[in-house]
Amino acid sequence: MKRNPIFLILTFYSLFLLGELKSSLATQPKNENQVYIVYMGGVDSTNGSLRKDHDHVLNMVLRRNEKALVHNYKYGFSGFAARLSKNEANSIAQQPGVVSVFLDPILKLHTTRSWDFLNSQTYVEIDNTLSSSTPSSSDICIPTGWNGTCMTSKDFNSSNCNRKIIGARYYPNLDGGDDNDVAGTPRDMHGHGTHTASTAAGNVVSGASYFGLAAGTAKGGSPGSRLSIYKVCNFGCSGSAILAAFDDAISDGVDILSVSLGGSPDPQPDLKTDVIAIGAFHAVERGIVVICSAGNSGPEQSTVVNDAPWILTVAATTIDRDFQSNVVLGNNKVVKGQAINFSPLSKSPNYPLITGESAKKKTADLTEARQCSPSSLDKKKVKGKIVICDAINDIYPTFSKIETVQKAGGLGLVHISDQDGAVVNNYAKFPATVVRPKDNSILIQYINSTSNPMGTILPTVTIIKYKPAPMVAIFSSRGPSSLSKNILKPDIAAPGVNIVAAGTSSPYSMKTGTSMSCPHVSGLAGSIKSRNPTWSASAIRSAIMTSATQINNMKGPIATDLGLIATPYDYGAGGITTTEPLQPGLVYETSTIDYLNFLCYIGYNTTTIKVISKTVPDSFNCPKDSTRDHISNINYPSIAISNFGGKGSVNVSRIVTNVGEEEEIVYSAVVNAPSGVKVQLIPEKLQFTKRSKKQSYQVIFSSNLTSLKEDLFGFITWRSGKYSVRSPFVLTV
Ligand SMILES: *[C@@H]1O[C@H](CO)[C@@H](O)[C@H](O)[C@H]1NC(C)=O
Ligand SMILES: *[C@@H]1O[C@H](CO)[C@@H](O)[C@H](O)[C@H]1NC(C)=O
Ligand SMILES: *[C@@H]1O[C@H](CO)[C@@H](O)[C@H](O)[C@H]1NC(C)=O
Ligand SMILES: *[C@@H]1O[C@H](CO)[C@@H](O)[C@H](O)[C@H]1NC(C)=O
Ligand SMILES: *[C@@H]1O[C@H](CO)[C@@H](O)[C@H](O)[C@H]1NC(C)=O
Ligand SMILES: *[C@@H]1O[C@H](CO)[C@@H](O)[C@H](O)[C@H]1NC(C)=O
Ligand SMILES: *[C@@H]1O[C@H](CO)[C@@H](O)[C@H](O)[C@H]1NC(C)=O
């Protein structure tokens, strides 16, 4: 029977300023016990009965302090979070069955430029509810076998769950959290969880728009799917709560997890202390697809997080939509600006313009004034004018300058940028816009040509079918993975810039980040799962990756926001497509054993691995010499080779499984190789029959290049009629 999948959405209350978060941590008394996570690997049974060693260690803790326990993990994996002294933590780490003990980390949500969005929401009424923004639909029902629950609170009762939202849990602040606590409710006050949930599985709603912009029909990636919400973020997202949500979600029976949050890439936690990697491992072991945001720390290399090989890691791209807020000059010429604002200014150029330089305060530095840095502007000169601020060689974003201009009595702000870019920010009611290098000459000439320059800033209009699109967003975190250069990360890219979805403080809200791209892929995974309910998590990942596109809507290669041709470090296999993944032809299945081999390579021994995985066969042993070549040979839908060049050839193998309708089918290989590299496939044709659904092949990479100057990229594609199964590869120096 066809069963629509159930999602896990990790959702949030609010993360205000980081400063606030830091200060609240800093005020914790120093010698009070801190919360530690004690991770003990897998479970013997999924009914909640504790493993003997788990029971033993937990009792050790409770004997000393019966109130120490914060969370007990017992359905999906073993362990607990508890308040411990440093000495206690150290001694627990030595106990049999304990894999790792570490301080409870604070993770953050993966929306970016969120201050802009918070600003924009300060003037709208709070009147919506989680359930009305994703209304229930009559063609879906609560599935049999669903073990989830609908937790209630003062502002959230059982009728807030329905046939769409079939589960809701929350994880209050560690200090108890009563009903009056903002954390003590499954209700989403911040909007991040509502937005991501409706992107993944919202019903079709026509007439959606963000205050009139980006109007159209809103619909989630898998409208027939049900949602289960796990609210793990309050003031920051504690690792112990995230693990509790994974543990509950595994026991509730979700099919897909959509996780739009993560840690910092600098320094990235190792796998023993990475809560998302730990929770995801146990979920994937049970056949659940885990999809995570790659992070918003781009465009610097090696910033991707959530990069364990069992996770589907998602980067962000733009869509074919632009938001223009143009500047009209006194001579009636129009300068293109990019911004989202609801400028209340008149459409006639009746407002005086002044440059930051001309509005310099006596005591201020000339460069600072040109850039409209804090307290560099003279109020008398700025009052009632639109200020032109320079962003050349300046890292401060537009919104930080709005404050300076607004404080000085300015009416509006035109920011002259020295970077091309496609990420458009939201300045709400303040008339602010960004002029890119290719558009700024008319403006600069006009200012120079008159002693009394005038102008206005028009409110934003939506431009659709914008070209080129998609582009990889500047903030999207990049590969290579810092875990291993032998697994390519991120895996895939999806829309994550100015996404309109359900809101909490208004019916729709617009948000940006890999947080937004992640649920697009979760929705797609939901559609694949409902069409192919028996497919493994890795088959679903493979289908999404091998059908991705590297071509934009101008039939050129997908570029980055900065105009460079994108590589798999930017977008993995490419941008998602929506119909091809439903019928991928062939899939690469990655097994739990593959993942355990990865753990061997990372430094776990066979004994520890048998604690982590209770499904591993007794015969499993780490390879005697676990080398990076073993990792390149994991049956992953992409290929990554490290230390390539000047040493002859490298040989990797893969196995593909025919999942197409045709049992008798032949695929031929097409290779796009970087210059100077020879890529040989053995065999060059794959013949599938009724009896042989699986075929293996080898890829031999060789090169004459004595030394590789930079990492090289290419693609291997297996083709047959309507099917095209494409894998990216990377060869690193
Ligand atoms: C849970 O399962 C284990 C092993 O399958 C069994 O020994 C135990 O009695 C069960 N416990 C409960 C509470 O059902
Ligand atoms: C739940 O709350 C709503 C108002 O928010 C109310 O109309 C409804 O009757 C309540 N349902 C239950 C079961 O208490
Ligand atoms: C729900 O719980 C029951 C009893 O513990 C278990 O047999 C079943 O597999 C669970 N369902 C899911 C979907 O995990
Ligand atoms: C504007 O005027 C300044 C100073 O007079 C000059 O340096 C600059 O080149 C002029 N810019 C343009 C675009 O005409
Ligand atoms: C495996 O690793 C653990 C943790 O590092 C260590 O305590 C244990 O002695 C090791 N076991 C073997 C058989 O090497
Ligand atoms: C590639 O490696 C595999 C396993 O190490 C080996 O069996 C095979 O012969 C190699 N192929 C070539 C063409 O070297
Ligand atoms: C290596 O060099 C030889 C001779 O110049 C050439 O024929 C061959 O194609 C080169 N191989 C690669 C992989 O570039």
TrEMBL record:
Domain Peptidase S8/S53: 181-564
Source species, domain of life: Eukaryota
Keywords: Apoplast, Glycoprotein, Hydrolase, Protease, Secreted, Serine protease, Signal
Signal peptide: 1-26
GO molecular function, one term: serine-type endopeptidase activity
Entries under Gene3D superfamilies matching the protein: 2.60.40.2310, 3.50.30.30, Peptidase S8 propeptide/proteinase inhibitor I9 (3.30.70.80), Peptidase S8/S53 domain (3.40.50.200)
Matches recorded under SUPFAM superfamilies: Subtilisin-like
Domain Inhibitor I9: 35-110
The Subtilisin-like protease fibronectin type-III domain, residue ranges: 633-730
First-listed, main subcellular location of the protein, grouped into a coarse class: secreted
Cellular component, GO annotation: apoplast; extracellular region
GO biological process: proteolysis; regulation of stomatal complex development; response to symbiotic fungus
Subcellular location: Secreted, Extracellular space, Apoplast
Catalytic center residues: 127, 192, 515
Similarity annotation: Belongs to the peptidase S8 family.
Functional summary from the UniProt entry: Required for arbuscular mycorrhiza (AM) development during AM symbiosis with AM fungi (e.g. Glomeromycota intraradices).
Name of the protein described by the UniProt record: Subtilisin-like serine protease
